What we know:
- By secondary structure, this protein is of the alpha/beta class.
- Helix content is 34%, strand content 27%.
- A hairpin with a 2-residue loop joins strand 6 (76-81) and strand 7 (84-86).
- Bound molecules: adenosine-5'-diphosphate.
- Adenosine-5'-diphosphate (ADP) binds at residues 32, 35, 37, 55, 57-63.
- This is ABC-type polar-amino-acid transporter.
Amino acid sequence: MSAEPDRSGAWVERDKIESGHLVDAVNVTKSFGSNVVLQGVDCHVDRGEVVCLLGPSGSGKTTFLRLINQMETLTGGRIYVDGELVGFTERGGRLHARRPKDIARQRARIGMVFQRFNLFPHMTALENVTVAPRTVAGVDAATARREAMELLDRVGLADRAGYYPNELSGGQQQRVAIARALAMKPDLMLFDEPTSALDPELVGEVLGAMRALADQGMTMIVVTHEMGFAREVADRVIFMDGGAVVEDGPPEQVLGNPRHERTRAFIARVR
Length: 271
Ligand code: ADP
């Protein structure tokens, strides 16, 4: 599908595919030194789909998200976003790098929300949301401000626009981080355990903002241990273990009637 032999018989990568999916991962491998973290991950995500990525700690979930967003380089295999090859890949046995300009363009289409809120501490909530549109996308100040206020309103924080991160609760900071990621109008949102650093009473407000985003049709890949969220919001659940996809299907199947013992054991542990 994604590679074909050229006239000399050597396999060449194709930069574009027409799979119809927003994300295609094909036989993705990743090693850190001798530590093989991903060993042949195949999966896809459709436009508008919410996919929850579950699995024990160390199973490679974060690494997979970071590969999609080109924060790590692939060891092997390919990832396509909207049919376009992203990141580094092997071609004829050699690492082939994309140009920085292409990486920046591709990254701008993906929003990422981390476990820790990663807001700029010296900027207000509003400034955190306007900074990328202003400096990366060249949006004028008035437009950036208006759009940022709309986003802060969407996450329920219009009245906190002038607050600095240290004046906000963890849940509020994480909602600002979501608004900030949305400011670049991404096609895809990646969430890496967005609630696991929060006090339990603050988890609901962040999941609520994510649920609203899902309802509005955003394509989302969410690494989470929040089973309720996965059950109620995900269109599909992917269970990973040991750097491989063990199970991939609708939540009622993967969570309600898992086929694999490893999935069953994991669900029993985190429930
Ligand atoms: P998960 O998100 O499922 O907990 P991770 O993707 O964070 O799993 O980690 C998978 C494995 O990759 C772990 O063994 C971790 O130590 C290793 N790893 C992740 N990032 C790095 C890195 N930058 N350098 C070396 N090893 C890493």
